[in-house]
Each structure stands twice: as structure tokens, then as C-alpha cells.
Design goal:
It is a single chain. The protein has 441 residues and is an all-alpha fold. It is built from 21 helices and 2 strands. The chain has 2 domains: 221 residues, Growth Hormone, Chain: A (Up-down Bundle), CATH 1.20.1250.20; 209 residues, Up-down Bundle (Growth Hormone, Chain: A), CATH 1.20.1250. 77% of the residues lie in helices and 1% in strands. Strands 1-2 form a two-stranded antiparallel sheet. Strand 1 and strand 2 form a beta hairpin. Helix 13 runs parallel beside helix 19. The longest helix is centred in the middle third of the chain and has 32 residues.
Length: 441
């Protein structure tokens, strides 16, 4: 089908975005909440089950080992089978396993349920990236992913006050932290059933598009895919020989070790610093994540306006480390410490979106495709390393200040690594327009 069809491409892009993005955004909100709500439950769960900080650190981190197992196969299933059916399977199984966390009694049971929660959720985020290639051209895809990242702080900002309310309920002989896992797993199960009807796999299946719109969109995406094949493909081994790939992998491994641990241990940190009630602790945590939403938004606006990605990522990592260090300066009262933590949140969520555009700016299309998979694996491995290390430090009796300085050091070292990247030169123009691969710097 010729691309000269009288299609309003702008109107079509908006039509697709409004149909696809709200549902995927909602799925990702539920995904991140079910992954991280253990941090909220810990305030009561640890005491009731007599779990040490080390037990929680390992239990939180083992999720990421399970997650790594099906990450790549899950993405392939979206490409070759059906996003609709695969996402449905993921949502229903992870919802059921998340609910089972309410009934663990021993550390071993806790480790097992967290491991299988990771296995159940594996493939979801890389599956979304693949799913977006079925609907969005490269330029629109980058913006869609940036918007999707807003779901992370949004889910935690919403989950904190909801969890605070659930911790105080005692229904049917179950404790509040048990109801937290049960109630917060229900949206995943409901959405898992709903996506079978609401999600559309590909433009060719979209009855909500006209035949001309379906043909136009499929042709645009096919041409883009064919253009990416011109330069040939490289293997994983070839990608591992590129210094740029190692800088990106090591940078996100170190920085995300601090980032994931900061997210999962934040309620514990706030509780220790404030000495307040569990409800107040979770409300303060919600304030932190609300500031994180602002950080994501400001980062996207600033990066688009300036055209810079590298120094936005470096600045966000460095700022997180420095501001987090300021929160443990001796002699401060809790309001001042909370102010530093809120400023930390602005930086902690500021660097993520610019970082994920760096592979396409520093590598050719084929190398970037391989590198993104490796980088994502490193980012999730960081979840294991950072949380396990933090749990170990706490179990050894190290005070809050030492734990936070360790996390701050992760961000600062990550910033140093990413600052060594070399960005491709000025954008090339094709037929008078910036190419999509070089436009976002």
C-alpha cells in the first residue's frame, strides 16, 4: 500500500496513543505496585513474623533473580505470539502470587513467593517495549516510553496512602499487612482478564481503525523496520567488545543498585528518621514519590527543550547522590531531613528517562538493539545487588546514615561512569528532516 494515501498522520498518531497508552500505563502502575508494596508491608510484617533486616533484604532482592529468567523469552513471545494473551497470563499469575505473600510464615516461604513473583512478572517491561514497536514509529515510541516511566512514582505515590489505610484493617482474622497484599493484587487479576478484550495486538487487528489507517500504519512501521536492517546485525559477543556498551551496562548496574534499594527501603528509612507512626511514615513516603513524578516530568521537558540526554542523566545521578548525602548531615531535625529526601526524589527520577535514550545516541541501530537487552538485564540485576547489600548492612547493625551514604555512593559512581560516554556528532538530516536516530541527544 502506498504511503501517499490521504491519511492525516497527526490525527492517526493521537488516535493510536489515546487507545493504547492509557491501558498500558495502568498495567505498569499495577506492575510496579505489586513489585514494591512489600516495602510498605514491611513496617508491620517484619515484627509479626520476626523477620530480620537481612531476611527482608534477601526476600526483596530475590525477586530480581526470578525476573531475569523469562525476560528475553517473554519479549519474544510478544513479538511472535500475542501481547494480549501473554500480558493476560502475566497479570493473572503475578496477581495470584502477590496475594499468596499474605500467607507466608517463614523466611523460606517469603523467598519462594518473591522469586516466583519475579518469574511471573518477567517479560512484562521488555514485552511492552516490543509491543510499542507494533504501534509507534521510533520518535513516538521514545515519547511513549518516557510517559510510561511516569507510572513508577505515580504507582508508589498512590500506593503509599492506600497501604497506610490497609495496614490498620483487621478483617476475617487477617492482619492489615496481609490485606495489603490481597487487596493490591486484585487489580492485576481483573486487568489480566480485561486485556483479553481491551488490548489489540497489531494494527491489522484493530477494528477501531479504518482499513486505510491500518494499511498506512502497517506500511510506516514496515518501512522503519526494513531501514534498520540495512546496516546489518551484530551478535551479543560483538556488542560486548564495544566500550560504550560496557559503560552503559556498568553505569546502570551501579546507579540502579542505589535506585532500587532506595525505593524498597524508603519507608524503613523514613520510619527510622522520623520515629513516627506507620501511617505517617507511609504518607511521608507518598510525598517523596509525588516529588519523583515532578522529577520525571521536568526531566522530559528539559531534555526535549535542550536536546541534551547525557548530562541530564549524569546530573540526575550526581544530584541524587549529593542530596541523599545531605539528608544524613548530623544535627538536623526530621522536617529538614525530609526536605532533603524530597529533593533527592526529584533527582532520583530525573535521570532515568534520558538514560534510556543513550544507547541510540552512542551506538548504531543494530548495536543499540542488542545493548538495550543487556542494559535492561544489568538494571534488574542491580535490584538484587542493591537490596541484598542494604539488607546485609542493616542486619550487621550499621546505622541509617551509613546505609544511605552507601546508596549515595552508588549514584555518584554511576554518574562518573556515564560521564565517560561519547555522544554521536550533530544530527544528520534526511530530506530536510532530522533523522529519528539522531534527533534526541
Amino acid at each position: 500500500m502506498s504511503l501517499s494515501l490521504p491519511i492525516d498522520s497527526g490525527a492517526l498518531r493521537k488516535k493510536v496513543a489515546w487507545r493504547v497508552l492509557p491501558l498500558v500505563f495502568m498495567l505498569y502502575i499495577v506492575s510496579y505496585l505489586d513489585r514494591a508494596n512489600v516495602a510498605f508491608a514491611k513496617l508491620r510484617m517484619a515484627g509479626d513474623l520476626k523477620f530480620t533486616e537481612g531476611v527482608f533484604g534477601l526476600g526483596i532482592s530475590v525477586f530480581f533473580i526470578g525476573y531475569l529468567f523469562l525476560e528475553i523469552p517473554g519479549a519474544l513471545l510478544v513479538e511472535r505470539w500475542s501481547a494480549r494473551k501473554w500480558f493476560s497470563r502475566i497479570l493473572i499469575t503475578w496477581g495470584c502470587i502477590s496475594a499468596l505473600t499474605a500467607f507466608v510464615q517463614t523466611p523460606t516461604q517469603f523467598y519462594l513467593v518473591r522469586f516466583f513473583l519475579g518469574v511471573a512478572e518477567a517479560g512484562f517491561f521488555p514485552g511492552i517495549i516490543v509491543y510499542f514497536t507494533h504501534w509507534f514509529a521510533q520518535e513516538d515510541r521514545t515519547r511513549a516510553l518516557s510517559g510510561l516511566l511516569m507510572a513508577v512514582p505515580f504507582s508508589l505515590a498512590l500506593g503509599a496512602p492506600v497501604s497506610a489505610l490497609l495496614l490498620d484493617v483487621h478483617w476475617l482474622g487477617l492482619l492489615g499487612w496481609q490485606w495489603l497484599f490481597i487487596v493490591e493484587s486484585m487489580p492485576a487479576i481483573a486487568l489480566g482478564i480485561g486485556v483479553l478484550w481491551w488490548l489489540t495486538d497489531r494494527p491489522s487487528d484493530a477494528q477501531w481503525l479504518t482499513p486505510a489507517e491500518r494499511d498506512y500504519l502497517a506500511a510506516v512501521l514496515r518501512k522503519e523496520a526494513e531501514a534498520k536492517e540495512v546496516g546489518g546485525k551484530i551478535t551479543i559477543l560483538q556488542a560486548l567488545r564495544l566500550p560504550t556498551v560496557w559503560l552503559l551496562v556498568l553505569g546502570v548496574l551501579v546507579a540502579n543498585s542505589g535506585g532500587y534499594a532506595l525505593t524498597f527501603w524508603l519507608p524503613t528509612t523514613v520510619k527510622n528518621l522520623s520515629g513516627g507512626s506507620d501511617r505517617a511514615t507511609l504518607l511521608y513516603s507518598g510525598l517523596y514519590y509525588t516529588c519523583g513524578m515532578v522529577g520525571v516530568f521536568v526531566s522530559g521537558q528539559s531534555a526535549d527543550r535542550t536536546g541534551d540526554r547525557k548530562w541530564h542523566a549524569v546530573g540526575g545521578m550526581l544530584g541524587t547522590g549529593l542530596l541523599l548525602s545531605c539528608s544524613v548531615i548530623p544535627g538536623q531535625n526530621f522536617p529538614l531531613q525530609m526536605m532533603w529526601l524530597c529533593l533527592t526524589a526529584l533527582s532520583a527520577f530525573f535521570w532515568i528517562s534520558p538514560f534510556w535514550t543513550l544507547p541510540t545516541l552512542t551506538l548504531n541501530a543494530s548495536a543499540a538493539a542488542v545493548a538495550i537487552g543487556l542494559i535492561n538485564m544489568a538494571a534488574n540485576l542491580a535490584g538484587y545487588l542493591g537490596n541484598h547489600a542494604t539488607g546485609w548492612l542493616r542486619s550487621q547493625g550499621y546505622e541509617e546514615r551509613i546505609c544511605l551514604l552507601f546508596l549515595a555512593a552508588c549514584f555518584i559512581v554511576g554518574a562518573g561512569i556515564i560521564s565517560g560516554l561519547k555522544i554521536n556528532p550533530s544530527p544528520k538530516r534526511v530530506n530536510g528532516f532530522q533523522s529519528a536516530s539522531t534527533k534526541m541527544k
